[in-house]
Amino acid sequence: MIQPLRNRPFFCSWSGGKDSCLALYRALQHGEKPQCLLTMMAEDGMKSRSHWLPPALIQNQARSLDIPLVFRSASWNEYESVFISALREFRENGIASGVFGDIDVDSHRDWVNRVCAINNIAPVHPLWKQDRRKLLDEFITLGFKAIIVVLKDDKLDKEFLGKTIDRETIAELEKAGVDSSGELGEYHTIVTAGPIFSSALSLKTKGQFHHEGYWFLEVEPEQGMG
User: Fold this and answer.
1) Angle, vertex CA 74, rays to CA 71 and CA 78, nearest 5
2) Could you give all domains of the chain from N- to C-terminal order, each with its CATH number?
């Protein structure tokens, strides 16, 4: 069950992927509308952290969700201080809660709880301790669409890049011997459509590249979709 938001304005920590999306969806079902999405970018602002998405794609997601978007850029060393600074600005503007898509990795939730406490923001984890496979089934049944854009090269073959998260892909992930939800970073996704989006995102694939143990799918908006 989602923790009650008590009618307080909230932001959503937004990676562009399936878990942050499902967390947002569950929060919205309680009648609340977030004040903004917060996406952390690399220090040059050209790609998002972890999911390596260009800002134009995340902007298209936010536009389709009709939710304002806030970007912050940081190196990994500066990530925490920049994140805390963003939360401080939110709190000063009356945003009292934050929604996060963590499922069951204690260290992730501990970090969220700590940085939120610094600014007296209540962290909300709508997916916490839910069965990973059931969350995937819910995501698919609700009509969300997502594709794999990042994967660990020691966990999955690069042929998984670009695959849609559906029941066939879930079976293939399980056959490959990894957790099908990717909760430990085995893969990352971008959500392209779903019941809270006013229109689907159209993606153009530019290629693939390998960097520091990960395969990445380079994607950008189709021309005219930005």
Assistant:
1) 135
2) 10-124 (3.40.50.620), 133-221 (no CATH)
pLDDT at 139 over 60: yes
Report d(CA 107, CA 184) in Å as an integer: 11
Which pTM does this prediction carry? 0.94
What is the sign of the dihedral through the CA atoms of 120, 34, 74 and 162? Answer: positive
Measured CA to CA, the distance from residue 65 to residue 197 in angstroms comes to 5
Whether 59 shows a pLDDT value over 80: the answer reads yes
For 10-36, the pLDDT digits (tens) are: 999 999 999 999 999 999 988 777 999
User: In the numeric block, which tokens belong to residue 84?
Assistant: 């805390």
Q: Which amino acid is at 41?
A: M
The two three-digit tokens of residue 80, written as one number: 């925490």
Tokens representing 56 are 């134009």
Cβ count near 6 (within 10 Å): 9
Amino acid at 192: T
Look at the block and give the residue holding tokens 């963590």. Answer: 102
